[in-house]
Fold these 4 entries.
Entry 1:
Amino acid sequence: MTATSPTRPLSPAQAASRARTRPRVRASVSAGSVILWIFVGIILFYLVFPVFVVAPVSFSSAKYLQFPPPGWSLQWYQNYFDRPGWVPATLLSIRVAIATAILATALGTAASLALVRGRFPGKGAVNSFIVSPLVVPGIIVAIGVYFFYAQVRLVGNPVGLILAHTCLALPFVVTNVSATLQGFDERLEYAAMNLGANRWQTFRRVTLPIIRPGVFAGALFAFITSFDELLVALFVSGSGAVTLPRKMWDSLRQEIDPTIAAVSTILIAFSIVVLLTAELLRQRAERTRAAAFVAEEDELGARE
Amino acid sequence: MAALTHDLQGADREGQVARFQHLRRREQWRYVLLLLPAVVFLIAFYGYPVAAMLTRAFYDPVPGLQNFEPLVTARSTVEFLGLSIPMNAYIRVFWITLQIAAVVTIVSLLLGYPVAYALSSVSASRANLLMIFVLIPFWTSILVRSYAWMVLLGKEGIINEALLAAGLRTEPLVLLNTRLAVYLGMIHIMLPFMILPLYAVMRGIDRNLLRAAGNLGAPPSAVFRRIFLPLSLPGVAAGCLLVFILSLGFYITPALLGGQKDVMVSMLIQQQISLLKWGFGAALALVLLILALGIYALFTRVLGVERVFGSART
């Protein structure tokens, strides 16, 4: 960007003065970077500390929130398994999230193919519409869906949650899959079809293996979007489809007993597992991107 | 495609071109068919319900604009910079929401920029390691994190206990249910949304430009101000837009950590709906939506921020 601007040659005196100031400049840089890294350390501590603060509370033997814990006990984990509602809510959340991930990934992957490859009028508008659930405040989607479900009798029904969560998760799938499709060499597909594969075979054996990291990442986002979703659940879950976030919300609003700390600790452990999975996927995506073309061609050749 | 190459043999060139164009058009139709399920699904379970809800503002309980009347008539005052400004009670909630969103955005930028800068200046493998500290809270449920702040800030929470034990205070500080708690909780949630786009843009900045400027005699402060900062501005715009828009619609954190004065628009809408004032709730939702989309359009059109929400969580 600055390549075109003319540069003035330095006079020997200027060069000498610059050479003299260089050690001082370097010293000030390292002092600056020490301050910078101390600041970064404080911010990273601020980000991570609250996440790990609930774990000791969850193992406390106290009857209410007390810090530091007077003793250790597993009573709150026992509460989580014994008290009515918690385990069913967790299982329902997992079921809804899995269904959402499958539905959103199928719809979103197909849509991404069209949005990246297709050239048709109104493409930009369709793209904006599909991504819009991210911009529209959650409460607006929640009450819209609530009024609609009240008419079609879907309040208190897990299916209603899956349908609404899929809408919220679609943008994540579309953006993730589109990103991997953007660097995709379409000639690989032409080659497969020239060799006699039909469209579906081409998709299954050539396209999908290459875009798989993006599809998995999208599915992961879809799962988490549904699993953490509160606002829609607050309105639509009624009494028949209480999800884990809804149950946690009710418990936080009524009495804060450390059962919620136990639940939170389980969820944090879960999210760390998810994070590691996502990280592994990302690394594999990077590693395989180069090797993918060769490997998949070999695989196709071996099977055919 | 296999059929295409087969057909091409023996046909004259003009016929080939016509046939190819015909197939290209058919190809485009296939794409439309691939897109259709997602679009129909979104219209049925998102577009239509939201649109139908918003139109309630104009006919529930009776047709007319009376649902927007309280936005003009209800009197209240708002304190700003030590001044008492007369303001409509409901507009006041919008004002507080904008104020909270603005503070959260600015503080997130001030805290997030140095972090992204530092992470982008080290090797990718070390940055990925440090990025885990940003990503762990990012993947943790907002509900869990808000609860964690309740544990930290409560009357018998960790901070108060620590202050009492250290003898710095004789009675607990009121930290929970204050604006400070809302800021602490919201900035904690929004920081990763600021750091990630900033980091992505900063990683893409060619370091040779900085070295070239340094070699040409620019002091480090000038290298930063005149080269690095301008090149990082797309990340700043993307991060700020993301954080501001998401902050406008916040519900969970202010509801759990805020006091009675810290009502944000989402909470007001929820309250009106539960009071069965559906038309008024819809009117408030419409104003909030116009506000959010207006700011989004302003950023994307005027500042040219592209695909912000696309790269949001990667």
Note: Residues 2-58 of chain B form one domain.
Entry 2:
Amino acid sequence: MTTTVAAPATAAPVATPKVRRGWTQHGMVFVAPFLLIYVAFLVWPTLLGFQMSLSSVNIAGGNNHFVGFGNYLEAFGDPRMWHSLWNTLVFTVLSTVPLVFLGLVFALLVHNLRFMQWLWRLSFFGPFLLPSAVVSILWLQMIYPAGYGLINGTLGTDVLWLGDPSVAMWSMVLTTVWWTVGFNFLLYLAALQSIPQHLYEAAAIDGATAWDKLRSITLPLLGRTTALIVVLQLVASLKVFDQIYLMTGGGPQDATRPIIEYAYDVGFTGYRTGYASAVSYILFALIVIVSLAQLRLFRKREEVAS
Amino acid sequence: MTKRFSWGQVVLLVIALALAAVWLAPILWAVATSVKPETETTKIPLQWFGSEITFDAYALVLGTGGIVKWAINSTVTAVIVTFLTVLFSAMAAYGFARTQFRGQRALLALILAGIMVPPQVLIAPLFAEMVALGLVDTWWAIILPQVAAPLIVYILVKFFQDVPPELEQAAFVDGAGRWRVFFTIVLPLSRPVLAAVSIFTFITTWNNFLWPFLVSTDPNTMTLPVGLANVVQGTFGLRYAQIMASVVLAGLPLLVVFVMFQRQIVRGVAHTGLAGQ
């Protein structure tokens, strides 16, 4: 009988929200499969990466000694790290400007055209659907070469698009703009379609020209979308790797090597996994700062709006 | 609909046609090169059409086998990733949006924080983990990390929070359990958003390069982008018609799918991309 004495005291509060207790277990069961994979393949590697960045571990898992912030100190004194970080920042600035601007121009154009929507969407967004390897091989083999390359051949020029250190980064930007502008184009197009039509009708009654409408209705209402697109684009550009690795391998003379490629080189070719993790986490910190700035930016805007 | 003619439209149309031509030119150049006889691919001055249209390059590329195998690998891995991502993310999102359990807020915060983690900076620790698990050169090494997509959970949580709970409550009154409600009411109601995130996931997975490139060294497990990247540095050398035939074969499936499902894809990308707003 002693076992039942305590029972009423605990059973009573639990018994009333009986349904809720059932939910309690179910809620966890719904979340569990994702959570398991998320912890195993995102949370754990994030922690492991930080631990590795504090060690001298190599790719085979050997030589695993704690070195504190030694790798970070080494990285801050490593001219090749600075150079690859610089390349990444240059690429980010050079690519973000045309990617946002052209995305807007294409969207404004297509939004105001009444014919052949499928053609515009296929032309401007189509390249975004191509794998980076396809884009890189195409531009490396048939667009950039001298002579039979599409650009030099059509314009009759002789530019060393990938071989000249002062041109190569611009070529990376050009290919990237062609490849990914379609994403920003679609985001702008969706934003344009959500602008209420009656604003334009009211403006038309007031005798506004097309230019007036663009300047005082469309562009102001796209401000929020533009802020979002700029942040998404900054983060995407900071992570650049595929097309540069596949087209120039980081050359000529390290002129295009981005920081992710440097981390890859150090870790997977040079076998210094601990140091590679430290280099990666420097970029990681930069991306987190941009993302947090975005959060603050949008929160402030919401406060202002409400 | 009255079709109105205006000079403004004509000007816009001309500009759009010119830009579209520039944007399509690289793809058309790849197609044009792929159907030329191999000896004419590097002729100067440029010629868009060779002396004849031949599909020899395609026959040679398909005959060597690699590309077909890689396309199958890519399709299988992308389908599995998409299925698991959407199923697990939808379940998790429903758990967060519609049920209560201990530690819920902390867990959701943990998942939202993950949106900021770029997979590219995790290559070294993830690779070490895959070595420890013995998964290198398997499909699971390619698949599992891509299923851990917190952004999709976030998008679906926001969606489920806006679904009116009355529909579910009616089913609960009829005695349906959580799981039945989820699979027979919530999921069918969410078909548009599920289609959107599925398309987004499929495209990203199909095109993913860095991670599959690191974990597959065996040509038998390589995905299409990885196999292709290896080929360029390898066997095809300077046979441009064959290289371009590979490029066209690898690029065409998604372009065809796009033309067929344009509306859904446009909505899917816009929806997923704008989720940060």
Note: The CA atoms of residues 85 and 185 of chain A lie 28 Å apart.
Entry 3:
Amino acid sequence: MQLSRPMCIAGHIVLLAICLSILFPMAIVLTTAFKPMNEIYAGGLLPQAPTLENFKRLFEKTAFGWYIWNSSGTTFLRVIGQLVIGVLAAYAFARFRFPYRDALFGLVLGAMMIPQVLTMLPIYIMMAQLGWFDTWWALIVPNLATPIAVFLLRQHMMSFPNELIDAAQMDGAGHWTTLWRVIVPNLGPALAALTIIIFIDSWNEYFWPLLVTESAQSRTIQIGLREFLQEDMNDYGALMAGIIVASLPAIAVFLFFQRRVMDTFVSSGLKG
Amino acid sequence: MNIVRGAAPVRAAPLQAAPITKRVRATALVPWLYLAPTLLLLGVFTYWPLLQTAYLSLIDWNLNPSQPAEFVGLENYGRVTGSTLFQAALLNTLIYIGASIPLKVLLPIPVAVFLWSMGQRGHLYRAILFMPTLISFVVVGIAFLWILNPIFGYAKVIFAELGLRFPNLLADPDAAIWVIIGISTWKVLGFNVLIYLAGLASINKEFIEAMRMDGAGDVTIFRRLIWPLLTPTLTFVAISTIIFTMQQVFTPIDLMTEGGPSNSTTNLFYMIYQYSFVTFDVGGGAAGTMILFGFLMIMAFVQFRVLDRRAQYQQ
């Protein structure tokens, strides 16, 4: 579609303004992290004498190594677990007929619209009874079911060509083999999109880890940053360094899968 | 839909009929095995806790296992709704939602339409807009704490160069809530633009060419074609914004203001958190949760009615 000229110019101006308001705070964080102490509070955008001091102090003052380990480990296990469990459920909804199928699918989708705040108290009590505080179990298990994954994967499986599945079953493949050998290898874009969604969700999670982690060794990066902010309110150099370390993995994962994801989102994925 | 007893692949016909009932029963089980993990997890960690919260709202308990819970009926509800904290939280929740509709639901629409009209050339804009979605609210909160720091923050330096005094926004009960709203908008705007782009992708551009030929201008095309076709997406964005705005502002509130100054930034979510995990008043927290649940249901229902009447066009 071609917009008229004044509309086009106005659009560019608005978008440039929005983009600048996004990039400017990021630039401040990025440059502050590399400034030595005496420059941090002096203003001026670019560091005069760039240094890695802040990163060093970050790792000395906090258990940041543990935070990275906990965030990476739980996120990795969550991505794998949530994808596998989502694929299984999506396959059942896409390729079988059974009683109450549509009602159950509605229940799964309905769970997407229930914010965590409505369910946290009983789950918290459950974790206490199981003795799961400060463990990876508490961070992983309550999050393993992923309605959005079931929804997206089911859609992609329903549009999968039946001839291929028939051919596989003619060759004697059962459901299990068909699913993992024929269907899953062809779900690339959808799985890439979900990997990003789950990764970001898990890596950036704040509220739940705040409730179930108490010892320094069990904290995730986000909660570790919060702790550091509260203990060392004015060491903004090290805090900005921490921000950068905390943001890099999600950005890296996104860039790695980016092309496929934008396409999946925009062409077939989330339609309201 | 015709429900078939027992399981059979939807389209692929079985190669041979299974005359033995045992075999039929075994295959009837198969889909349930695939579904079991998801259904079990959602049951244990979503639907059962919803019911249990209703029960917890009727007891008096302080999370201490050795302390017996005492049944007090509806007393918790009266105590929570009577508190000044609740009244402030409810009012602020309405402000958060009221401000979110123009900022997070409506503002992304023209941005998305413009990007859509640019096609592939808008790639860089899209990438930049999406960046805040990748980073966490903790990161955003700490970054803006630094920028808005009243003593050495960046905003202060810029204001000083313009000869102005920079106010301590987060300590001002009238301004703090708008800082939080601004930050959460900064964070989710790009994601909502992306969802609208997904909705726009299904609009056939030939319609637009046809309207163009008939001499329609940009405004007419938007009002008569794009807006109606976008309404289902709008409904989705509006309802999820209402439900999740409170969750989105929780982190900035917790990091930057802790609900203050004088309860001016707290909301129902943060109030529930304080009842449950700061003062360990389980009954109060659960009663607050049930009230929030009812509130969200009503808001979603109203939205749905208002917007659904307009969603008359189907692609």
Note: Residues 1-48 of chain B form one domain.
Entry 4:
Amino acid sequence: MSDQLLAETVKIKGFAGDDIEAYFARPTGPGKYGSVVVIHHMPGYDEATKEITRKFAYHGYQAICPNLYSREAPGASSDDAAAAVRARGGVPDERLVGDVRGAADYLLAQSASNSKVGVIGYCSGGRQTFLSACSLDIDAAVVCYGAFIVKEPPAELPSSAKSIIHLAPNASCPILGLFGAEDKYPDVDEVAQLDAELTKHSKEHEFHIYDGAGHAFFAVDRPSYRPEAAKDGWEKIWAFFGVHLAG
Amino acid sequence: MCTYVTEHVEITGSGKGANGWFKVSEASVYFDHPADAPLEHSLNIDFLQPELGPSARVAVELDAASAARLAQAILSTLARVPDGLSGS
């Protein structure tokens, strides 16, 4: 496999036909590729998330990260945009689903698409990945430490995020879940409840909980980074997407 | 964890951002992931002028103990201001 890739900022159609910004990375060699929508974490459409997007291209996937904060802060730096959006309680679920649908459609319309598309998200993007898997017709989903899927946010948090566990029967694809044993949001009890709910509805899924890791263990630029968990997590992702998206 | 714990405060004054000084009318105080500080969570303060857009922001990210010391320093400084000057 060639390691050549191209990464650039593009415009895509998001929720309600809105033009939104997105970071698109893809292999440039000949052939057909599976596709991955990367949902950024709450700190935004930042350098770290773009690095993750390029990593998927390096591994042979067309990948795109929509800027979920395009509307509130066009042209602003990722941290300024994140501050503006968090002050408003985050991104509405309906809009998120529309933006992910637009990103998936953009990938599937590429001539190099093999017609398979998955979604991955971290932190708040983990919850949004589960939401996408239960709202859109996709082929695979990877939930990385998404909180507030099962439990409601604490009452003192003015988050717009609400529990979405009731959507589990609608899951359209296999789900890989990667979690830290020391994480409080979600804690291992919440992960166990999600696991049980997917089992109850006969939804294909595979969960891994890493000892010695908490929230955001994939984040190489944060003190929460746990190399052993992250390395194993990436191997799980390549194996999972290899089965459900590649070829 | 992505907390959304936030306090909004109306303020009057100026802040110096990437493009120089601007009037600030609002401050957001929140505890969440930092964008830059090497901490898992931090006490963040944004001094804002929403009318000028999201980029009109002066931001600081502090560990919790630093933030508490800063708050105490602000209050103790204000307490020592001579009568008649604090409204000027």
Note: Chain B has a mean pLDDT of 92.
